[in-house]
Design brief:
By secondary structure, the protein is mainly alpha-helical. The protein is built from 9 helices and 2 strands, in the order H-H-E-H-E-H-H-H-H-H-H.
Length: 184
């Protein structure tokens, strides 16, 4: 968010070291965030993510395009050399070739390897009671959402999931503050 918001100012400054936390935000090379990161001038780049690279080689290419420009070549070359043979044909030798190329640039640690370094989990539960008016609004919205979801049985699975997500989001906003849902 910061690099996107201040892209012009950050892009004007040369950097010795650029550390990209939450680097999974760069998995789509067409996003404005990925474009803004690539526009930064830095001598050395490091990307950190707690999210493993997902199943798409395009995500990997986009991340390396920002961190180590040129290593994997253009998208067309990468697609021809790795994506098509690996994803379409299941070419194990190409997968191993790509893994060997990237190995010097990746440090991957599993949860089991870092578990002893993590602090103990802290969980704090705070109850916040809704006022009678807020409870009335929340219950009405909950019942409306339940009715809409009951009527959604004829819709496609993706549409039903979208409606469920929209209902949960509305209820979460309403639980935070009624004005987030009802401006008046």
């Amino acid at each position: 968010g910061l690099v996107l918001r201040d892209a012009e100012r950050l892009g004007a400054q040369p950097w010795h070291t650029l550390v990209l936390d939450e680097a999974q935000m760069l998995k789509n090379s067409h996003t404005k965030t990925a474009q803004a990161v690539r526009a930064l001038r830095a001598d050395w780049r490091l990307a950190l993510t707690g999210t493993p690279v997902e199943n798409r080689l395009a995500d990997l290419w986009s991340l390396f395009r920002a961190v180590c420009p040129g290593l994997l070549g253009s998208w067309e070359r990468f697609q021809r050399r790795y994506v098509s043979p690996i994803a379409r044909d299941g070419d194990e030798s190409r997968r191993m070739e790509l893994a060997q190329l990237l190995r010097p640039f990746l440090l991957r640690r599993t949860k089991a390897e870092v578990l002893h370094e993590l602090p103990p989990r802290t969980e704090v539960q705070l109850a916040a009671d809704l006022s009678p008016e807020e409870r009335e609004l929340y219950d009405a919205a909950r019942l409306r959402s339940a009715d809409r979801l009951d009527q959604a049985h004829g819709l496609a699975e993706s549409d039903r999931r979208f409606q469920a997500l929209a209902a949960i989001t509305e209820l979460r906003l309403l639980a935070c503050h009624p004005r987030l849902v009802y401006p008046d």
